[in-house]
Amino acid sequence: MTELQKRHSECTEECHSHEPMTHDDVKDYYGKRVKKTSDLKTNACIAPAKPIPAFIRNALAEVHPEVTSRYYGCGLVAPECLEGCRLLDLGCGSGRDCYMLSRLVGEKGHITGIDMTEEQLEVARKHIDYHTQKFGFSKPNVEFVQGYIEALTEAGLEANSYDVIISNCVVNLSPDKTSVLREAFRVLKDGGELYFSDVYSSSRLPEEIRSHKVLWGECFGGALWWEDLMRLAEEVGFSTPRLVTANTITVGNKELESLLSGYKFVSATYRLFKIPKNPEKKDCLVIYNGNITGFEKSLEFDCHYTFKEKEVVKVDGEVASILKNSRFEEEFTFQPDVETPLPGSCCVSPKVVLVNPFELAEKFESANVSPATGGCCGTQASCCK
């Protein structure tokens, strides 16, 4: 029996439920029905691999095999400049990303993973000592908390306490995405960042898809229309989402494909910043200093801006505000006079802003290139205070 036939047969008895989705449904799906990556019935959480910087690849290789075997993400969530930072992983699952990032933030950094599924957390907690010893730390720099990503307050997570929040293919599983963003905004420090990969739909999904238990569990039914992310981010107080990368998702299951006919899906990574509400937003010239380990020659900030070492780049007012008010401040030299670049250097102008992940995915596919991936600081510099 082929993998596709196996998925079709396993899905047949489950693919006809249209009751409202609850947290218990998701807990059951990822706690009892899905025990390893191969148990998934679609391709949503096993998107094609992207090129990964060597130091991140090495960190991933050090994660315990049992943890990796229960990985259900849809992208790489490793933003740059993380050494010494406090990170929160929303929907950490078995802890693969937490452990990879615990290696990258270093012993002075800290990772908190939160998940509502006890079976997943049991796997994550079991390997804390293993990774502490593997990374050569004198004490653990990671902890796991059981709770809901819509209710971080109830889970005991304090306001203004994290430099960076990540999430990997989990926000789509929440029935209240506004609360997820609002709670993330609350616990982030000023200048903090929400950097997350998720599944997005080409338009708003009808009730029969959103209430389908298998489609929801497989990350399709709860997929947010990408334009609604723009609206929700503004409503909560975040900066305009910066699109980093996007991949087209294929379903890989004939029965579920028929239910999703007419809708398209992508895995996309966005970065949202908690910057001052009314900052001065003026175009300016910036120069990347080249001090972020792993990205000494160039830093791909998003799909619009790639900063090369010592090159003068003209950025729009919002990007200037993000860089000046975040952990990236010390990584750049700012030149307010946009008309007069430094002697001997050329000025690269900003590109047309692209926020539609489907257009970006098509652009990558037509050019036959892989999307850019994020990274983070190594152990040479402290990017967070």
List the helices and strands and how they pair.
Layout lengths: L2 H9 L11 H11 L20 H8 L3 H5 L16 E5 L5 H10 L4 E6 L2 H9 L1 H7 L7 E5 L15 E7 L8 H11 E14 L5 H4 L2 H5 L6 E2 H11 L5 E7 L5 H6 L5 E9 L10 E5 L9 E3 L5 E3 L3 E4 L1 H8 L7 E4 L11 E2 L8 H11 L18
Provide a compact summary of the structure:
This protein is of the alpha/beta class and 385 residues long. The chain contains 14 helices and 14 strands. It is 30% helix and 20% strand.
Describe this entry's structure for a reader.
Residues 83-237 form the Methyltransferase domain. Pfam families: Methyltransf_31 (PF13847). Belongs to the methyltransferase superfamily. Arsenite methyltransferase family. Its EC number is 2.1.1.137. One of its GO terms (cellular component) is cytosol. The protein is built from 14 helices and 14 strands. It folds into 2 domains: 3-273, Vaccinia Virus protein VP39 (Rossmann fold, 3-Layer(aba) Sandwich), CATH 3.40.50.150; 284-367, Ribosomal Protein L9, domain 1 (3-Layer(aba) Sandwich). With 385 residues, the chain is of the alpha/beta class. It is globular. It has helices at residues 3-11, 23-33, 54-61, 65-69, 96-105, 118-126, 128-134, 177-187, 207-210, 213-217, 226-236, 254-259, 317-324, 357-367, and strands spanning 86-90, 110-115, 142-146, 162-168, 188-201, 224-225, 242-248, 265-273, 284-288, 298-300, 306-308, 312-315, 332-335, 347-348. The N and C termini lie far apart (55 Å). Helix content is 30%, strand content 20%. Strands 1, 2, 3, 4, 5, 6, 7 and 8 form an 8-stranded mixed sheet that branches. Strands 13-9-12-14 form a 4-stranded mixed sheet. Mean pLDDT is 83; it is low at 1-19, 26-35 and 372-382.
